[in-house]
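Action item from last week, closing it out:
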Amino acid sequence: LLTYTDYAKTGRISRYFFALLLFGIGLMAKPMLVSLPFVLLLLDYWPLRRFAERRTFGLLIEKLPFLALSIASSGVTLLVQREKAMPALDMVPIFLRLENAVLAYVAYIGKMFSPTGLAVIYPYNLHPSAIRALLSLATLVVVSAAVIRIGRHKPYLFTGWLWFLITLVPVIGIVQVGSQSMADRYTYVPLIGLFVILAWGGWEALSLLRIPRLVQALGASMALVLCAGLTRAQLRYWHDSIALFQHALNVTVDNGIAEANLGYALAKQGHYDEAIAHYRAVLQRYPRAIADIWYNFGASLAATGKLEEAIKAFQNALTLNPSMGDAHQNLALALVRSGRLQEALIHLGDAARLEPENATVHNIYAVMLGAAGRTDKAMQEFQATLRLAPDSAATHVNLANLLAKQHARDEAMAHYLEALRLNPAFVEAHCYIASLLLEEGRTEDAAAHYIAALQTKADYVPAMVSLAWIYATASGEVGTQHAAEAVRLAEQACRISGWKQSRLLDTLAAAYANAGRFEEAVKAGEEAFSIAKAAGENNFADSIRARIDLYKKRSPFRAKR
């Protein structure tokens, strides 16, 4: 506007083209600026008063390049935003959109003078009050008529009021490109027009009333303090997403978008039960809501173990958007947890097809193919994953696990070692390597990897119990020298796990026996036996019983290596 004003005053064509360039940049940042060509005409009327100096036709021709940019920007905006609208809102009947537009105009004026009850999103009301709409329309008509009548003598009224009306047209909802009925952010430019009226009109009023300057200053100061207080109060609602969307729910009615976003914010903080309640409330009112809401609902349900509901939610998301790769992936994971591996593979295949560059999807697909016994296909997916993410330590470990099952130990070891090279803190890789080494009878080397894992993560139970088992069941000096360490590790593992895992208690019993504490060994062994028996692990329970018999004879258990 400053550049255009400079052009209007000096006639320098370079300023005109610079203003046009700045307008194009402005449209890329704020598409609602499409009404600027009409605003420039208003400025030509007042305060530039160019209509008195030039013919109207010339002023109109001058705005055509600006208008061309506006038309292009409008087309792009409509094309992009229509795909993001809530379902069926772009099909709202025109008379409802006109009603909402009239109500919004008056609501914006009201919020300018009383900025309370502000919300990040105002829901679209499909059943607006006809009486309120008529009263709002009457208000706009009366004010516009008064402005036209008085504006001849006070042109700032004409320019300010039409500035407000015109700059709101692109976002007032007549052409619906979103799910909101109005938005505070849309008023930054339009309210300039009303503030122009207040500034010039207020100055005239103060001049006529001859109010002392001290009183004027005090009044302005009080207004600033009031605005500062309201701003401070409003900032509290922007502290975080939960506060923001909870406030929107508090000050609006039937706000499905705010409720869905509140659910998402709660889920991000791990408050899944609260998130589920909000998602459920939205979906009961809008069962055909966008796929993302069903997807987020399913993710929260899955996080709380409600797998059947989660599966249905993911399926609903895919009904609305069959190309949603994340929904296919998470549906597959929920199906796997429900023991439905074959169904899961179908959806993982779809996810891999929809997101061919997503290494995580290919990795998960490969793991599940391996679990289903489809080794060749799993190998192909692992290779695809490594092509996409050659530095993925997790993929190397997963591939190594599959190779180890196929007894390709050398290849498996190579991938485990590569995983450790990529991520030296990968404790699971240390444990897998140790398992392979134990199978080869390399007990000391295996123990070294378990120790390395515990140096990285001191409370890693699998490494604790495995190292304790090696020490507790080793023959000769190894068992004798590390007897106390075996007991310490086994007790710590049981303590962390709540003394409820049969394998850990069995290891503790072996450690006690190795240390000569046979009564405690028998007691721990009996607890391990009871837990294993209750879990239906009969073969393991029989092994524990055989070791208990040794402890009763005051003899430790020695593993064959």
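Closing note: The first strand starts at residue 122 and ends at 123.
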